[in-house]
Amino acid sequence: MLPLKEKDKPIIQKLLSAGCCARCILRFCCVSVQAAYRNYKEKKIVNTYLLIWGMYALYKSKDAAESETSEDPPNKRAKLETSITDAQSEEGAAAVVKLKDGDSRVCVVCLGILQELCGTTQAVKAVKAGNYEFDTLVLSVSLPAQLCVREHSCWLHVKKEVREKGLVLNKDDVIQVKEAFKWIMQGMVAKELGGTAVVTKVSPFEVSVEFTHSETDADCHFLAATCPDCFKPTKNKQSVFTRMAVVKALEKIPDGKFLKHYPCPPKQPTSSCSPQEVQCLRVSVFVAGRYNKFCRSLPQTPWVIDGERRMESSVEELIAAPILSAFRADGFNFSSSGREDVDVRTLGNGRPFAMELLNPHKSRFSKEQMKQLQETINQSSDKIKVRDLQIVTREAMSRMKEGEEEKTKSYTALVWTQKPIQREDISFIDDIKDLTLDQKTPLRVLHRRALAVRQRAIHSMSTRFLDSHHFYLRLKTQAGTYIKEFVHGDFGRTNPNLCQLLKTNTDILELDVESVDVDWPPPVPE
Amino acid sequence: MESVEHEDTKANAPSVIDRYYTRWYRADMKGKPCEDHCILQHSNRICVITLAETHPILQNGRTIKCINYQISNGCSRLKNKVSGKSKRGGQFLTDFAPLCRITCTDETEYTIYSCIRGRLLEVNENILETPNLLLEKPSTEGYIAVILPKFEESKSITENLLNRDEFENIISKRSSAQSQPS
């Protein structure tokens, strides 16, 4: 039985004749029983109204020339007729309803959104097709602004009727189209996608349905003339008739003025409102770890100039590929606690990194599965290796970035000297502590960095003699120190530099990062 | 023995300049004989203006009396200030824009020119304090200025410049011209 009462009758009659669909009628009668809307055959709902008040006879078309088409077999109709319990209503007979079986008139208020339910069907289809892993979903519906105008018109249409009967119908009591749509969606989701899926207010999985109806866009335009201060001109080409602006204008406009400019009830549209493509978006998942780089010809990010790839692969691609496919994500953002050059290796514990995985279709991974994924990455290439792979929160990204600015790093450089050296010549370097450098922006990065002088500290150094023109230099430095420029001087723009200290031309042949002293992410025990 | 070893390693180790820069030249700048400039172009398009080894300042044991970046009443290259990644505020130079004037102790005066179009990023202030740097290390610590050409022009600026081979050609022509009896 429908939760409709005798008092709703005048509203129902008025709205039916105005051209409202069954579910919109339920809304205007403030029916908040969700199940009522989920009854999928609109015809069934309408039949039930008419049944209650014996208006079934009104199924006859006003226009005699139009032939009645009936989807119900004659004997079923007869059954319904015999189950009429209430007395025939004469008022009902007067309200000529042009509704026929299988009538596909588009509702004047919801423009068909609550009628054919292709929006919900499409949404459910999209979720299924995407093969997402989820427990809950939040439904975000975007409706064309003219729905507010049409709703307002219908409300005014019944307001008079309601007042005459001594009743009150607040506009706020009317169930919103959006809400009804979501209730229907909940039912469909539960039915089609299994019992665990629940439509909630907040969820990491968002399904967005957008409706547009260009045919009736002009319905809003009169408001610009009547309430000009509600509509601010927009800079880009987007319509000035936003939902918010239209709602505001409708709140302000006096009833009389509205009725002058807009038909009440609204005009019947010829086409139904169609949903745009449904968007499914799962909130990003963050994966962190530490990476080692063993190759001296691997850039961190893909090296592409003028559309041509200059170097094969990159650190981020090698790490991201297996992770992307495991999480079935659409894309990723890779960032790390600092970077090293193409020709520099990263040894030791490795450099912390974090990846944001965009729209991951699969997001639940156990510790075991993460270990397995780590193993897959390590097997895939001998150029890089990852450790401590784990899922982290978005906030963790900032912890990693603070490491870039604040934490110390250790390096080993292979130095060439122009003048021949002996062990004693370089031993003094081991005693240098906290050497402050003034480094102008190196010329090799000056094209993309601001010109500035940066003070950086080399905390300590140690040397290992190799031969008369080579030695290994170990350094522990402040974050952001340019090692190469310290060694060769960068045209004298880094002071002091190794050339000055050793009083000879020096150059750097090889550089390795020995450690990045950031204690994040937390180590994952083997 | 030692000097041979020294030569070997010097030859084996490509310098920073060899690895990252291309050498371009402008000979007889503004028609003045032998006033050759060497432009070091980095692979990222930034150019360092230096004196070529053949420049008169570097010949005959000259010493420098003073270096002046004030090239006119209204313009000092020292006042050049760039800000931000896009280097706003840098003085825009054309090929023949003077960078500085160098006076040697033998009263000879030379103007060093930009040689390329672009935005002046910095001039070398170290040579103001230590002019010897210019004499001893003209290609590195004794550089004159750093210029950033426009992105669109980064390839075209070298059209008016000589590459290493062309420059060496010119030099050898000079010495053969000199050795011919006039």
TrEMBL record, chain A:
Broad enzyme group? isomerase
Q: Which UniProt keywords apply?
A: Coiled coil, Cytoplasm, Isomerase, Metal-binding, Mitochondrion, Nucleus, tRNA processing, Zinc
Q: Where is the Pus10-like C-terminal domain?
A: 286-517
From the Swiss-Prot or TrEMBL record, give the protein name.
tRNA pseudouridine synthase Pus10
Q: Name one GO molecular function term.
A: tRNA pseudouridine(55) synthase activity
Q: Which Gene3D superfamilies match?
A: 1.10.10.2050, 3.30.70.2510, 3.30.70.3190
Q: Give the species.
A: Oreochromis niloticus (Nile tilapia)
Any one cellular component term from GO for this entry?
Answer: mitochondrion
* EC number of the protein: 5.4.99.25
Domain of life, per UniProt, equals Eukaryota
GO biological process terms held by the UniProt record: tRNA pseudouridine synthesis
Where does the Pus10 N-terminal eukaryotes domain start and stop, copy by copy? Answer: 107-280
Compartments annotated for it: namely: Cytoplasm; Mitochondrion; Nucleus
Q: Which reaction does it catalyse?
A: uridine(54) in tRNA = pseudouridine(54) in tRNA; uridine(55) in tRNA = pseudouridine(55) in tRNA
Q: NCBIfam families given for it?
A: pseudo_Pus10arc
Gene this protein is translated from:
PUS10
**Record's family?**
Belongs to the pseudouridine synthase Pus10 family.
UniProtKB/TrEMBL annotation, chain B:
Q: Name the UniProt key words of this record, in alphabetical order.
A: Cell projection, Nucleus
Molecular function as annotated in GO: actin filament binding; actin monomer binding
A cellular component term from Gene Ontology for this protein is: growth cone
**Location relative to the cell:** Cell projection, Dendrite; Cell projection, Growth cone; Cell projection, Lamellipodium; Nucleus speckle
Coiled-coil region list: none
Has keyword Nucleus? yes
Q: Which Pfam families match?
A: GCV_H
Under InterPro entries, the record lists: Abitram, GCV_H/Fam206, Single_hybrid_motif
Q: Might you name a Gene Ontology BP term for this protein?
A: dendrite morphogenesis
Give the top-rank taxon of the lineage listed in the UniProt record for this protein.
Answer: Eukaryota
Q: Give the main localization category.
A: other
PANTHER family attached to this UniProt entry: PROTEIN ABITRAM
Protein name from the UniProt record: Protein Abitram
Q: Which organism is it from?
A: Oreochromis aureus
Q: Which gene encodes it?
A: ABITRAM
